[in-house]
Every structure is written in structure tokens, then in C-alpha cells.
Write a structure and sequence with these properties.
It is built from 4 helices and 2 strands; from the N terminus they run ααααββ. The longest helix is centred in the middle third of the chain and has 31 residues.
Length: about 160
């Protein structure tokens, strides 16, 4: 008798959860390494945090633009133009963030308690099958719809 046969979870919810957990593992690993004696990389982390803050501000500006369009305070042409500008800025910031995370992470390549070349995963926004296979041993879904990920490396959050 298997208690799990009726356990179901929405595929998109599962993907979103796994993606956010991978991103969290990377952030925690990098933060712990800085905290535990690699302060020369702290400036990278500060820069990444600055960029993340700017990305959030751009998202807020985009929301405000949409509200102004809906309220009739902004024409469709102006909305498209300003949204395109925001997208360009966001893309440039995202690329800068990726570069910084990869530089920061290159220090940690080859560490035993994390996946090799962790930097190549920094800033991921999609969940390719190869990535899941490389980082995750299995995912447990429980009857209460809670999830547990068993990693192929030392869990940076639990340990």
C-alpha cells in the first residue's frame, strides 16, 4: 500500500519552488563563504545587492507606468517607449549581476560542499532538465503538499 498515490502538485508550482530553492542555495552558499573568511569578495556581494535593489525599483516603475496607462495619464506610445527603456535597463543590470556572481563564485569553484562551477547557475531564471538532474537527487511531495528537495551536494541552508 502506497500512501503517496493520491499526492498531486501543480507542475508550475513545482518548477517555481525548485527554481526559487536553487536560487536560495546559491545565495546562501555565497553569503556563508563571504562571512566565513573570504571578505575580499564582499564588494562583489554589495554590488549584487545594489543591482537587485535597482531591479526591484525598475519593476515598481513598470507597475507605475501600467497604472498610469490604465488611468489615462499615459498614452500607449509613451507606455511602450518607457517600458522598452525599462526593459533595456533591466537587461543590462541583469547581465551585470550575472557577471558579478560568476566572478564571485569563481573563487569557490572546486569546493567539496557545493556543486562544481556554482557560478554558472547564478541568476538562473529557467529550470532546464539538465540543471535539475545535476543539482537534485530527488524531490519528495508529501500529502500536505509540502515539498522536500534532496540535493546532490551539501545543503547550504540546513548544514
Amino acid at each position: 500500500f502506497c500512501e503517496c498515490k493520491d499526492v498531486r502538485i501543480n507542475e508550475q508550482q513545482l518548477k517555481d519552488f525548485v527554481l526559487s530553492e536553487i536560487q536560495r542555495q546559491i545565495r546562501v552558499f555565497v553569503f556563508e563563504e563571504i562571512k566565513n573568511g573570504k571578505p575580499e569578495n564582499n564588494s562583489f556581494q554589495v554590488e549584487v545587492e545594489r543591482i537587485e535593489k535597482q531591479l526591484k525599483q525598475l519593476d515598481c516603475k513598470k507597475t507605475l507606468l501600467f497604472e498610469n496607462l490604465a488611468d489615462g495619464k499615459l498614452s500607449k506610445e509613451d507606455f511602450k517607449e518607457k517600458t522598452a527603456e525599462l526593459c533595456e535597463k533591466k537587461l543590462a543590470l541583469y547581465e551585470e549581476k550575472m557577471e558579478l556572481l560568476q566572478k564571485l563564485n569563481s573563487t569557490y569553484a572546486g569546493e567539496d560542499d557545493a556543486p562544481k562551477d556554482l557560478g554558472k547557475y547564478a541568476g538562473i531564471q529557467e529550470l532546464p532538465q539538465q540543471l535539475v538532474a545535476e543539482l537534485i537527487q530527488r524531490i519528495k511531495v508529501f500529502p500536505d503538499n509540502s515539498l522536500e528537495i534532496v540535493w546532490n551536494f551539501k545543503d547550504c541552508i540546513k548544514d
